[in-house]
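Sample pair:
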Amino acid sequence: MPQLPEPDSLALEHSERLSALIREKIAERGGWIPFSDYMRLALYAPGLGYYSAGAVKLGRDGDFVTAPEISALFGKTLARFASEWLSCNPGKDILELGAGSGKLARDFLEEVESFDGTYYILEVSADLRGRQEERLKGLPVSWIEDLPDDFEGIIIANEVLDAVPFHVVCWKEEGIMERGVAVHDGKFSWHDRPLEKGKLLDAASQIDAGAGYVSEIQLEAQALAKRIAGSLKKGILLFIDYGFGRREYYHPERNRGTLMCHYRHHAHDDPFLLPGLQDITTHIDFSAIAEAGTDSGLQLAGYTNQANFLIHCGITEILGRFSPENPLAYLPLSNALQRLVSPAEMGELFKVMAFCNDTVINSSCFSLGDRSRLL
């Protein structure tokens, strides 16, 4: 594990308060909880969880950087994609789930053409919502508390599914086990229990894994994807996240899973370190998300990597507005574009999946370079 920056005393006190709460919950449950429950508390416990407390999470002063934080090119390119559909469907709205700092919304609204609808945001973090409200003052943005029943427009979920609590499963000679969390000598530790009948065992039994294999199963992310898909009456649903199709996700060589934590721009795989001060994520099984969307009655309109999506949606044309002869303006944007599309950065690992309902996506963003065959 890399050497991590030392948190200050107030941060440590905060983490210990959350740790005490989690230990209490584990004791109430007989000394063991599934990892999904641990993750839910670590990220979302009211006033204490990572996404519920007030620490800066995004950008240079936070723990990780998302595509919208890297450059306005990302949000402006999404706006170009949306403008094509919105021009044929006037009066429709935008709904962003988990809008982070609000930067994507601002960049989108500054770029989108002929938009006469409302940009809605559904944000579960009160802290992040406050930051969004400050950043988006004066713009046609409205916050909602739950998914609408019959939304018409474009739904954007950028790096949402990876933060949904997931189960950790291990395959052993004696059977399939769920990896949960116990307390040993006052510290959190992994503890495995046999899986009982239910959805998790059914899902794990379909994975061809040998003894010693450990991975994640994202039942809650699939359920959330179904809920989001079910709310779309007419329009487009975009999921943007890092992940793979099922065959690659559960590849024999990926035998330790994809669980990852982020703290002060350091990545590691110890979810028990500094609860409440670090993010906990996993890569996405996009095959499962495709099934969730189509099971809800939507059509899978496309699946591609982020580089292909952004390039065919015109990110280089947006960069072309700036002259290379003005290096102070051009070079930071050029470097940011490379981070967004380079296979060594975000271009290949991040994927874009689109669904549609009662509409057609006439866009080369998916018709060129579609990877649906890999799901």
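Residues 94 and 119 are 5 Å apart (CA to CA).
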